[in-house]
Amino acid sequence: MISFFTIPKPFVDEHTSRSQINAIGSWKHAFPDAEILVFGDEPGIAEATQKLGVRHVPHIDRNDLGTPLLSSAFQSAEALATHRILCYLNCDIILTPHFLEAARAFDAPAFLLVGRRTNLDVTEPLEFDGNWIDVILRRADREGHLEAPWGSDFFAFVKGTGFAAIPPFAVGRPNWDNWMIAFARARSIPVVDLTSACVVVHQNHGYAHVRNARKKWEGPEGDQNAALAGNGRSYTVLDANVRMTPHGPRQFGTLRRTLLQVWHSAVQRMPDAVRSRLTRLPL
């Protein structure tokens, strides 16, 4: 089975609390046999995890600004988790059972599962005693927008395959997700893009929680993350070398990856209105 782990924000405002309860609740209800580890001691976490019936791990290392460090969570998850597959997710991601179906379709001694999220405004609690899976998937299809391939919100990998060596990145800031993909590719670990095989819903939110931000999540902590990631090329979902389809895994050739990278780079130079449409195409 699978062990999920996450680092939530404080449960202090209605929108954040609802989004995080929706997210963790979806993992629990979609995968009843999964293990869920929730890291941190911010206000409301202990009460929320008790109510949701998931495991709370209060201790996590922090940087000088008090932001939790991903390295601490990854190392603890490796030590505490009981399942072979670990999956780090941001705590605003809604999953359905299709996620694990797609993950199980690829089996290897080591792998990294990634994918593009579908952004969606979610303003209400999910009703888990009802037909919540069909409801959220219909809404995502009708109202959601596929995110560009630059950022990733979930990473599933085999326990003990080296990802606990992640540097002390600040959570919720840029550049660390690119490091995950670069790390896997440098070690010939297959990177599998699940985008075409399952819908992963990201609940839209603001970035007021980012300290000293210049724009959205960018700022001193993002700069520090970039320094920790190194000066190499920034790897994205487009660097996946396997693509999971509804019919099973397909090798993602170098030529196709290169053409897609050129395409998306060109799109980034287009006007905002055009770019926002083109980056959502499921290429």
Number of domains: 1
Instruction: Specify the biggest β-sheet.
Output: 9 strands, mixed
Quaternary structure annotation: single chain
Number of strands: 13
Task: For the record, give the distance between the C-alpha atoms at the N and C termini, rounded to a whole number.
Answer: 30 Å
CATH class designation: Alpha Beta
Q: Which class of secondary structure composition applies to the elements? A: alpha/beta
Strand order of the largest sheet: 3-2-1-4-9-6-10-12-13
Q: Which stretches of 5+ consecutive residues score pLDDT under 50?
A: none
Can you tell me the CATH topology?
A: Spore Coat Polysaccharide Biosynthesis Protein SpsA, Chain A
Helix and strand succession? EHEHEHEEHEEHEEHEEHEEHH
Mean pLDDT figure: 88
Structural Rg: 18 Å
Helix content: 25-40%
Shape: globular
Strand content: 15-25%
CATH architecture: Alpha-Beta Complex
Q: How many helices in DSSP terms?
A: 9
Secondary structure topology:
Elements (H helix, E strand, L loop, with lengths): L1 E5 L7 H17 L4 E5 L5 H8 L2 E3 L12 H11 L4 E5 L3 E2 L3 H7 L7 E3 L3 E3 L11 H12 L1 E2 L7 E5 L17 H11 L4 E3 L7 E3 L16 H10 L12 E4 L2 E4 L2 H14 L4 H7 L5
Fold and architecture overview:
The protein has a 9-stranded mixed β-sheet, sandwiched between helices. A 4-stranded mixed β-sheet has the order 5-11-7-8. The chain has 283 residues and is an alpha/beta fold. It has helices at residues 14-30, 45-52, 70-80, 98-104, 132-143, 176-186, 220-229, 254-267, 272-278; strands at residues 2-6, 35-39, 55-57, 85-89, 93-94, 112-114, 118-120, 145-146, 154-158, 191-193, 201-203, 242-245, 248-251.
